[in-house]
Amino acid sequence: MKKSTIHTTVHLSHEDATRLEDAAKKLGKKRSKLMMQLLYLLMINWKKWQHVFDSVKYQSSSGDEWEVKHVFLPVDDYELCTDMRNFFKYSVSGLLAFTIQVYLNKILSGEIELPEALDDNNHLRGYSCRGEMNKNEICWHTKWILSEEFARRVER
Predict the structure, then answer these.
(1) Is residue 155 part of a domain?
(2) DSSP 8-state class, residue 121
């Protein structure tokens, strides 16, 4: 059975959009796939970056014009993006721009590898979200179950 795909957009500065396009061509990847691999690098290194984004933020335009890029994501990847947006308190477009600036040159120079093992789309094994009420507090527990191979790469 084929997984459902979500068609959505990300907004990037002209420079970041060009860098993403050029890198996708150079690496022989679709833009959507490269986008997710960049975001997986952020997820893998979540402890390093969790306090960089203290409150909800959006990318600043810095006078640059925005480009709207269409991406096609499997439902699981789309849901993971929305959870990363909530966790990091930054828009998905902002997270992508961040990963382009932090990781893309290192990938192109061979300094770090893309998570190629994730090419089979079975890296996310399951998901659950539940609420727990305690007096006047509610706590949301979100759980992503990763493949063994993906989990080995994630910072503990």
Answers:
(1) no
(2) S
